Each structure stands twice: as C-alpha cells, then as structure tokens.
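Quick one: structure tokens for this chain, please?
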Amino acid sequence: MLRSLAENSFSVMSYNVAGLPELLSSGDPATYSVEMGIRISNWDIVNVQEDFNYHAYIYSENTHQYRTATSGGVPFGSGLNTLSNYSFNNITDLERTKWDDCSTFDGADCLTPKGFTFIEIQLDDGVTIDLYNLHADAGTTAADETARASNLAQLSEYIAANSADNAVIVMGDTNTRYTRSDDTILEFVEGLSLTDGWVEYVRNGVPPTKGADAIVCDENNMTNTCEVVDKILFRGNNYITLTLENWNNENAAFLDDDGTQLSDHPPISSIFSWTLNSAIHLSNAVGGPHGDQFTDVASAASGQTVNSITLRAGSRVDAVSLAVSAPTAKTFYHGGTGGTAKSLTLASGEYITAIEAHWGTYSSQTRIFYLKFTTSKGNTLSGGTTTSNSATLYAPTGYQLSAFHGREGDEIDALGAIWTKIAA
C-alpha cells in the first residue's frame, strides 16, 4: 500500500488494465502496461481484468511475489489474473471458469472466454481468504442485461457451493450499477451476505436506488462518491472478522504525466484489518488440491464435548467422523464409505490433541494415506499407510479437536484441524 499498514491488515485493488490488442483497446496498452504493473505493486493483493496481450508488460517490473500465469491473449484467455504479496494456499489450485452465457451486442463479450477465477489466499497459518476475480458481460441492451444477470447467478451458485462458511473477497469488473433497473448486483451481494466496500465506506451502508439516475464519474475530477462498475465485495466467517478500514478510487494515482488515465477504468482499492475468534484455532491443511473443499468452522465453538472419533481406512484414508454431543449434538463426517471403520470413544475429560497425517499420490491426485489421532490421555486411533510426506498437527494449550476443514471426495484429499477452547 502507499502507506505502512497496521499488523493484521492488508490492502487490495481491482483494476481493469485494458490489455486488449491495440486495435480493440480504448487505451494505449503498449505504453502504459509496464507503468501499471509497477504502480499496482504498492497493494498487497491485486485482481486485474483484461490482462490479455500485454500480460508480459504488466509483469515485467511488477514486484508481487505470487502471481497467476496468463491464460492467453485474445481470443484464448479470460484476461483474469491475481498478484499477491501473500502466498496462494497449498491445497487450492487456481480455478478458471467460463461464463455459461455471453452477449455480443455492445462489448464483444463472446470474443474471449470471460468468466471468473477462484484462488485461496494465505494470510497466516490457518488463516485464509477465498478470493474471486470476475469480468462480467458489458453493455446495456436487453441481451446484455440477461447475460450479465446469468453471469452473477452462475458465480453466486459457485461461491455458495465452494466457499460455504468461508471468508470471501470478490473483486472485479462487474459491469453493473446499482442504479440500473435490470442489473442484479444488489441481489448478488445480499444473496451471499456480502458487503460492498463502496456502499459501506462511502455511502454509509445505503446502496443507490434501482431506477435512479446513474452516479456518473467526472473523468477530470473523479471522486469516491461516483459509482464505478468495478466492485470490492467481502464477508468474514465464524473464525475471521474482516473490517473495512478504507475504500478509495485510485484514479489520481494512475495517470500519465499529461493527466491521461493509464486504462479506461480507474483502479479501486480497500484496506482490511482482520481479527480471529479466540475460541477457535485452525491449523493449516495438509494434502493436495483435489476433491471438494469443506469446512466445519461455522459449527465450531468453545466448550464442545467430543464423544468419539471414527476412521475409515484401507491403503488410504477413506473418511473421518467426529461425534460431538454438546453444546449441540452433531456428527462431522467427511469422505466416502470405503475402507474399514475403527472408532475411539473418549472418556470424560479426555480430548484429542494431535493429528499425525501422511499424504501421497494415487491416480495422479494427492490423497491422505494415513491418519493417527492422539488424545490427552495417550490413547490413539490410526489407519491407512504411512508415506515419506507427513506432518503432525498439535492443539494449542487449552484447545481440543472439535471439527475439520480440507478437501474430500470418495477419500480424504486434504485435512486440517479445527481446534476449540476446552471448557474451564
């Protein structure tokens, strides 16, 4: 960021960099792309759109340590990339998804495979954010509005399925305005329990009215009060609280010496601070980026009573199950139905305090091959086959195993611990 940030704070930016081939671009990408890459280095996490034919220029003098690889120029790539000072999580690969619908009426939207991306950002040990980047259908014809509404509905369904109960940031070129009667950005935000940074920080939480006049920006005097189609949307979860500290239209910081915009979009930015629920502690997950993501964090709470743990395993780990009786009775089950089941019943005052995990490759995918659970009284439950890749996850003092997070399919692909405070 342009100024130093407090501990447990990070800055984000969304920027449409107008990297279409020069004949199609409304900007001057060959001249400006290197400069944009330099300037965006001042923000911690940056989502860019239209990063097509001048991708190498953007990256040439940029200093972010972690950057997604290009998916290609026009007409092959989506133009969506993420640059970050924070690492990408080891159990989540970048996922690129093309829109199901597009319209060619106003914006040549079908010329490239526009869509959205998903990647997990690692802020700290056990602290991750699901990050989405998008470029929605442009234009204002009926066909454009229909395609764009379909885009947002498709992304909403994906987030609901893949980021349930996770902390999420969505940044990108939505091509929407709250004031447009047929745009569905408000429904998208509310449906996923997101907060719009501009609405929250600049408009005190009150979005513009549908059907009202557009709040158009003056390119010669751009302020935060005007609405741009680029958005920063966010939510926390039961573990991570995200607090919006700032939202800013960064147009003034991205002009050339003559005062001309480096792109036909202004970049927008935010600063977030984050705090953790002290009753919960998540370990990093071990394993690989296969199967479906899951987390039990929404149900985690201090003072839980764990009755038993069950492990299904053969040559690899097929499933894990944890039975909790209080404060709410619930069984956390992840994986398939194969293998042989073995269980360990915990005595009163006994807690699971360590997990030894081994992983390896099967059918070209990373799987959990072996698990061993150890309790505070030295009892153990184990199954599977040990490998050369292993780690042991330990509960912090005063915490116990109460749930899991990771990835699953017919077997366990990745596993992390959700530790909670033991009742005093």
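The longest helix spans residues 142-162.
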